[in-house]
Queue: 3 jobs
Job 1
Amino acid sequence: AQVLVLEDETLVSMMVEDMLGDLGCEVVGPFARLDAALSFVAEGNPKIDLALLDVNLGGDRSFPLAEILRDKGVPFVFTTGYDDAGMPEEWRGRRALRKPFTMAEMAQALRQTLDG
């Protein structure tokens, strides 16, 4: 699976990339800034099977990218330290990995998301 990664913390991004590689996924990006990820998706770049979106990117929120991906039918999983109470109403109940998460938790979230 081609997995877009949006994560602004370098160490977390590296960990996620390693986990995805171990799971046989190909990382798209990774992107540390929302504007870079938005530009990449807007340019119609390679197929994305799924995206992992950090909710808080140094003050920016990843929700604009989530909206675009939703409209394109691309599934995504939020990665966040927030619980549902910290999420806007529109995004509550969406699949999310709570930081810190394990490889097993990420693998399960990817499988469930890709399987619909």
Note: DSSP finds four helices and seven strands in the chain.
Job 2
Amino acid sequence: MPRQRRNGYTLLEMVAVLAVLVILGAIIAPSLAGFYGNTKQKAAADIFRKRLAEARAKAMERGTPYRVAVHSDQTRIRVGPDTENFGTGTAEDPPSYGSVVTEDTLDEATIELQLEEGDERPSDGSEWSTVATLRPDGSSKEARSCTVTIKQSTFAPIVIQVRGLTGQARNVPQTPGGQQ
């Protein structure tokens, strides 16, 4: 009786195909990581600008000053009413527009506040550094501008200037060498 042939692949053929797929994956994986680039850094910059605009809107809507601050660990942004207990109030999770206090933790990016020379922002004794305090009329309590730098590993930093008196934010263009 002749032996019947079965349709299918041998174990050797399956191993060969898997080996080719592993080699292709090893070649493609580094380029995929480069494709995503500094998306976490750009997201952090977007969150910061969003929270600054949100603080202005809440101050105008609720008739009370709202503060935007960065934590000394350089990974958190906080928005809340400008009171003595700004740094100790409980932030709502997840944050929404209806939240009184919001706090964001940056993912793989850091945020650093740089003040102009002679700029002494009042401290409430907490680990939060005030970027801007927005008043109900939409203006900023701080007279001097400040700069916020958002960094992610080896990428050029994103620099955002927050103007004094108005609290408006703008990106500071970077030259190819990373200089302002």
Note: The first helix runs from residue 11 to 36.
Job 3
Amino acid sequence: ALFMALKRHFAMAPWTEWPDEQIRLRCPGACEAWKERLREDYDLFRYIQFLFFRQWAELKAHAEKKGVGIIGDLPIYVPLDSADAWAEPRWFQRGRPALG
């Protein structure tokens, strides 16, 4: 939710180009400060995520009742400009999973 609020605030620029180094590098205190600064968008994206997960749980339960299994996929490459790469950069090398 914070990632998307920040993306919107910074005109959808990749996180590697955000002008505020503190939030770009997730320095201590920066996330909380930006959550407050972008409270309206942050809450909007949290609500959207809540709706998605509620709908997903309902869909999965319905499918299971019908004997249908739902499987997902594991991305081989994660885009550099993603919430995952921003939140956990130590696991990625230029958008690819780090090996070892």
Note: DSSP finds five helices and two strands in the chain.
